[in-house]
Each structure stands twice: as structure tokens, then as C-alpha cells.
């Protein structure tokens, strides 16, 4: 794990001549992020969710909206620690092929998760969380190998400014003037044109929160992680200087994101440029804090649950998705007729204990996190790390 892409996310065996020092803070940050992802994705009752655990309906940013960009930020940091030594000493061709293969595997896992139990190719959702991770990994991996940090900063600026101009200036065919509406924005039109409504998010049907155009600024989120990783990895500055400047730069990104949001709102589904800077700034500040505590001060107490999640993050995300789909599809007899096994377990085990519906729903999410923690804890103790 020390010199490889975080096992949970990209688990690559890309060779390095000098293993990078293990970033415990990155493992912890990844683990915290995936635990939060499971908590948000698996409430007991979708009709009763505490506001911080629900995504913003459209414009805006809740704590739940921070999880995915944090994950992509971690992607960027991880690439640096995986490839920095190899980039300097080895031919780039084999490294690019391995990056491409692993991106393809991640994309394939996303398609499999969408097909699982239904196997309907005509209506399978093509975009998705794993698909976006794959594309961000691919884009950032290539940029890390082939560009300097200044060029990466330039690409970031072009992506964010260019995406802003596309959303707010380019007329949308069949709609008219540029729009930021869910069904009428340029990204939604492009998804319908290239993928067709049958292959988009089933809840919306006409647009997808992980659509094609929004992947461009999502690569920008990964680039922010790349830049943070390069700063932490560089030799010269002492640890205190690295933490201080990472915190300052991240705070500046957050502030710029808030200023930008006055004319391009924070929006996760659109992955707006302001949202990239705002969430990337928060992610950088979080990593700086954890880096100081875990890697500089050597704090370790109570970190094992986060480490257990962190080293098998993609594994638990993928398997929990399959399990959730299985429990929703499995029908059993209930008092009022057939219900899904998930609802049956929830109504039988949690609702009687927690009469408040919001608390019961939260308990369902917490139970999911704890059940998977038990599995991952055993894997961690036995050093079982499933590589993609």
C-alpha cells in the first residue's frame, strides 16, 4: 500500500523504484469519506433523512454533497504517491497502458453494478460514480505523467473557466438560451444526445448527475488533489511549512469558490466550477489537518476503523451497492403484502427500537456502516486487500 495507488480506490501494482512514504492521513481521509458515503447512500427510509445527510435538491451544497468531490480529490493525491518515482525513472508507455486498464476495470465495475440482477442492456445506466472515478483517474493519470505542475494548474483554469462559459453562454439546442435547469442545461442535452434517456439516471430519466460534460470539471477536482499531493511529496520545505501553505492555498480556493458562486451557483449535479473550488478547498484543508495529526505528530489512537475502510474503499463501495440492490429486489411476505427484504429488516429490527422516523432512518445507515466495518476489520487484521 505505501507506494501504490490507494488500494481501495485504484489498487494498482504500478512499479516504483523508491516506494513513497505511507501517508496515514490519506488512508484515514479515504476511510472517513467512504464511511460517510455508505451512511448517506443507505438510510433506513429515504423519506426521513436529516438535512445534512441529504443532497441539495439542486443549487446549494450540503455535507452530503462534499463526499464525492472529497473522494476525487483523494484520487489526485493518490496518483502522485503511486506514480511519482516511476514517472521520473521509467518509460511512460507501460504506465499509461496500466492506467488505461485500471480505468477500464473501474468503468466495467460500474456497468456491472448497474446491470446486476436486472441484466437489461437496453436500459442500463452508463454514467455513475465508478464511471466518473474511472474517467477522472484516467485524465489525471495522463496529465500527471505528461505535464508539469504549472501546466496542470493551467489545465485546471481552462477546464473551470471553459466549463463556466459553456454552461452560461452556449444556447441549448431545443431549449433556447443557456440554462442551469436540471433538464435544460447543456450537459443534460448532451447526455440525451449521446447516451439516450434509457441510459441515464433512472430517477430523473432526462439528465444524469454524473453526466458526460460534468466529468470535465470533475477532472479539475482530481487536479486539485494532484497539486496538493505534489506539494506534500516534494522535498525541501519542512512539514510545518507544507501544512501551512496547503491550508492557505486550500482556504484561498474555498474563498474563490464562494465568490464565484455568486454568478455560478454551487451545484453537485452540474459539478459547477465554483463547486470544484469550494469542495476542493475544504478537502485540502481536511487533508492538511489530518497530515499534521497523523503523519507529522504521529497520532494513531482510534484510527483503525478508518484505516480498515480506507484500504478497501472501492471493495466496500462496490459490494455494498450489490448487497443493497439484492435486498431491495428480494421480496418477502409482510403484514400488508410483499415487501423488500431491506424494508422488512428495517421495519422489524429498527423501527420498534427507534420510534422517531428520522432517528430510525439514521440508525439504518449507521447499522450499514457498522456491519461493513466488521467485515473490513477482519480483512484489515488479516491483511486482505482486494486490488482492482
First-residue to last-residue Cα separation: 13 Å
How do the SSEs run, as a string of H and E?
HHHHHHHHHHHEEHH
Radius of gyration: 21 Å
What is the average per-residue confidence, as pLDDT, rounded to a whole number? 93
The best one-word shape is: globular
Percent of sequence in beta strands: under 5%
- Arrangement of strands in the largest sheet: 1-2
Number of strands: 2
Low-confidence parts, pLDDT < 50 over ≥5 residues? Answer: 1-19
Q: What does the main sheet amount to? A: 2 strands, antiparallel
Multimeric status of the protein: single chain
Tally of contiguous helical segments: 13
Q: Domain count, please report it.
A: 1
User: What structural category characterises the helix and strand content?
Assistant: mainly alpha
Considering DSSP H and I runs of 4 or more, what fraction of the residues is helical?
A: 55-70%
Descriptive report:
This protein has helices spanning 24-41, 67-89, 92-115, 129-146, 149-169, 186-194, 215-233, 239-260, 273-296, 304-310, 313-329, 341-350, 357-381; strands at residues 331-334, 337-340. With 388 residues, it is mainly alpha-helical. It has one domain (24-381). The protein is globular. The protein starts with 23 loop residues before the first helix and ends in a 7-residue tail after the last helix. Residues 1-19 have low confidence and may be disordered.
